[in-house]
Amino acid sequence: MKSNPSTDEAPSLVEIFLAFSGMAILGFGGVLPWARRALVEERGWLTADEFTEVLALGQFLPGGNIINVSIVIGQRFRGVPGSFAAVAGLLAGPIVIVILAGALYLNYGQQPIVHHALNGVTAAAAGLILSMAAKMAMPLFRRGAGVQLALAVLTFAAVGLLGFALPLVLGVLTPIAIGISWWRLR
């Protein structure tokens, strides 16, 4: 990842808060696709490769992926206060929306139209996640990264198709991926 930008070039705490707040509200139920779009395509705060690196770190660490990503991005630009601004932006809007939605669901949750609407939202969220996965994989195809693609497919097959536990798969494939990368850099 790039070195930390100077304070003059970095977004302000308010900009970080508003960026993550916008991502959270737009991507309610699936923030990662919106985070990639906002951070890479709209704001240019990260390159596609940098976003993939930050996301990989966020997925490897305990906790929610998008929370971990927000902490890393906030830290990168404004240190600890930046991390707090990013997480606060990420959580403030959804907390208010969930409280309001819960109150509405208590009154109207048994209506058939509500169930149909929730099914539609589920399909849209799945489509957004597939779209993000395709965008993240594109740099691998362009670089001819056959080994990385093979490891990604192997991981998907082991967890998604064969049902192996994610910690087990990561425990086996992570050292292999690190070893391959180390060997290639030698």
Short description:
The protein has 186 residues and is mainly alpha-helical.
Structure description:
It contains seven helices and no strands. By secondary structure, it is mostly helical. Helix 1 packs across helix 2 (31-42) and helix 1 crosses helix 4 (65-108). The mean pLDDT is 87.
Distance between the termini: 20 Å
Residue share in β-strands: under 5%
| Average pLDDT over all residues | 87
Number of helices: 7
Subunit arrangement of the protein: single chain
Point out poorly predicted stretches: none
- How much helix is in the residues? over 70%
Q: Which of globular, elongated, flat, extended, rod-shaped describes the shape? A: globular
Number of strands: 0
| Main sheet makeup | none
Order of helices and strands: HHHHHHH
From the structure above, extract its key features.
single chain, 186 residues, 0% strand, mainly alpha
Blueprint of the fold:
Blueprint (H helix, E strand, L loop, with lengths): L12 H14 L4 H12 L5 H13 L4 H44 L3 H32 L2 H16 L4 H20 L1
